[in-house]
Amino acid sequence: MRLSRYFLPVLKETPAEAQIVSHRLMLRAGMIKQASAGIYSWLPLGYRVLRRIEQIVHEEQQRAGHVPMLMPTLQSAELWQESGRYDAYGPEMLRIKDRHERDLLYGPTNEELITDIFRSYVGSYKQLPLTLYHIQWKFRDEIRPRFGVMRGREFLMKDGYNFDLTREDALHAYNRHLVSYLRTYERMGLQAIPMRAESGPIGGDDTHEFLVLAETGESEVFYDSEITELKFGDREIDYDSVEQCQSVLEEFTSRYARTDDTHEEAVFEERVPEERRRRARGIEVGQIFYFGTKYSEPMGATVQGPDGKPVPVHMGSHGIGVSRLLGAIIEASHDDNGIIWPEGVTPFHCGIVNLKQGDAEADGACEKLEAALMAKGLEPLYDDRDERAGAKFATMDLIGLPWRITVGPRGLKNGVVELTSRRTGESEELTPEAAVERVA
Ligand code: ATP
Ligand code: MG
Ligand code: MG
Ligand code: MG
C-alpha cells in the first residue's frame, strides 16, 4: 500500500474527549471516528486490525472444532418472550418497532436465536456434540459508553454456543473454549487471565472471565502473582481429549484469581501468601459460561437420547470482545510515541520510509523493497509522500508497525538500508535483501 493513495487521517492534536491512552491513540492514528455516542466508523487502518483479530478468532475457533455461521443483528422479540428475558433484560436492550408495529430488538447476545435454530433442525443425540459460533455486531445501550471501542454501544463480538447431551459433555465444551481462548489471546500478544466471575444476565453457575491487566481496566481483580508466569505457548492439544482440556483448565484456574464480584478476602488471605497477593485492575476481553438447560428447557430444545426419551440439551455460551480487543492490545502495548502492534495483529507488517522522495535511485529502491516484501506474502506500507523525514518517522511510530525500513541516498551508496524495530527502537544497517529476510 502506498501512503499517498491510502486514507490515514492522522491527528496532530490529542483529542480532548479521550480519557485513556488507547482511545487517544486510536483517534490520533486515524483508526476510528465516532459516529454517535458509543458507535464508531472503522477507518481503513482500524478496519485492518479488526479484520486480523477476527481472523485469529476464526482460526482458533475452527481449530477447536467449532462451526462458523452468521445470525442477523435484528431479532424478533417473540423468542425473547419465550425465554423470559424480554422483560428481564432492561434498558440495555435497544427495542425497535417495524412498520407493522412488530417488536424487534438489536441483539445484545444470541442465546435465544441459536436455540431456535438448534431446535428446528436437531432431533437426535447422534448429532451432538455441536458448537456453533459467529462474529457479529451487538448493541447494548450502555448507560455510560466510554473509552472508545472499549465500551461501545455497538460492538463486535464473537459468540459461540455449545449443545451437548450431558452435563459432562457440556463441561468438556467449556474447557475446550477455555483452552482455545488462551491460544487466541496469546496469538494477539496478550496475556488474558481466566478469573472466576459472576454470570450476570446470561445466567448459569460456571463461568470465567478473561482479563487483561491494565490500570485503566474497569474491573477490580485479585490474584496470585504466580498466575502471570503461566504461558500456553505452542503446545499441541487434542481438543477432543477430555483429559488434555481438563488438565489445561486446572493448570490455569487452580490459583486464586477472581473479579470483585466473586472475591472473598478471607479465602484470598488463606490461600495466597502475602507477597504473592495482587490487587489490580483488568479489562474483560472474554467470558465463558456453562448454564445447562436454562434456555433449552423453556424453549423446548430437546433431543432424543440413547434410550429414545427426549432430553433438554446442556448448553453454554462463550464470548470474545473482538472490537474491545483493539483497545486492550493498545493499553498493553504502546509508548510515548504511539502504538506498538504485536506481530500477530499489526495492520501492515512493515513500513518503508523514503528519505528522498523523487530521487530516482531512492524511489526505485523503495519500489523494489515493496515488491520483495509482497512476494513474501507480507503487506508493507510505503510512505511515498513528499514529506520531511521527521514527519514520516512520527507517523510510523504513531501507527506502530513492528518494523520500519528507511531508505536514503546516503545508505544506498553503500548498498544498505536501515531496519528499525518499533519495540526496541534499535536500528541496524543491512542490504535490502537481508532486511526483507529479517522482516519475513
Ligand atoms: P462488561 O462487564 O464489560 O459490561 P459483559 O460482561 O457485559 O461486559 P459479556 O456479555 O460477557 O459482556 O460479552 C462478552 C464480551 O463482549 C465481553 O467479555 C467484552 O469483551 C465484550 N463486550 C461486552 N460489552 C461490551 C461493550 N459495551 N463494548 C465493547 N465490548 C463489549
Ligand atoms: Mg455489560
Ligand atoms: Mg462483565
Ligand atoms: Mg462478561
Automatic annotation (TrEMBL):
Alphabetized Pfam families for the sequence: HGTP_anticodon, tRNA-synt_2b
Any one Gene Ontology cellular component term annotated for this protein: cytosol
GO biological process terms, semicolon-separated: prolyl-tRNA aminoacylation
PROSITE patterns tied to this protein: AA_TRNA_LIGASE_II
Catalytic activity: tRNA(Pro) + L-proline + ATP = L-prolyl-tRNA(Pro) + AMP + diphosphate
UniProt-recorded Gene Ontology molecular function terms: ATP binding; proline-tRNA ligase activity
Record-listed E.C. numbers: 6.1.1.15
CDD domains given in the database record: ProRS_anticodon_short (cd00861), ProRS_core_prok (cd00779)
Annotated function: Catalyzes the attachment of proline to tRNA(Pro) in a two-step reaction: proline is first activated by ATP to form Pro-AMP and then transferred to the acceptor end of tRNA(Pro).
UniProt similarity note: Belongs to the class-II aminoacyl-tRNA synthetase family. ProS type 2 subfamily.
NCBIfam families: PRK12325.1, proS_fam_II
Assembly and binders: Homodimer.
This protein's name: Proline--tRNA ligase
